[in-house]
Amino acid sequence: xxxxxxxKIKYYKSDEGxxxxxxxxxTLKDKDKKKIETFIEVLKIQGIELKRxxxxxxxxxxxxxxxxxxxxxxxxxxxxxxxxxxxxxxxFIKRSDEVPVGEINRALIYKEKILQxxxxxxxxxx
Length: 126
What we know:
alpha+beta, YaeB-like fold, 5-stranded mixed β-sheet
């Protein structure tokens, strides 16, 4: 039987200790937060194999976890990093048809900071 690769889930943290993904989750009702966390666990197991409607590729290595919650369509942006890490940058409630360019750009800025400040061995500090 083929062993399934389990990914490591990380949340981006700023130099000041802020964690935008956790901040987003903390704004949600417990039921909605739990639903997103459940799908994060599914992503942890399925990784790049998890497809639409739950995930989608946006651009420049940024993906979105797409979960319908009470407030609407939640989007949690993430990228794959250093072989076995999935790094979530932040989340938001989508209020338009397209993912706002500003949200993708925000994720790209966080991604660049991680790639500049961490390597394969030190990313476990996130």
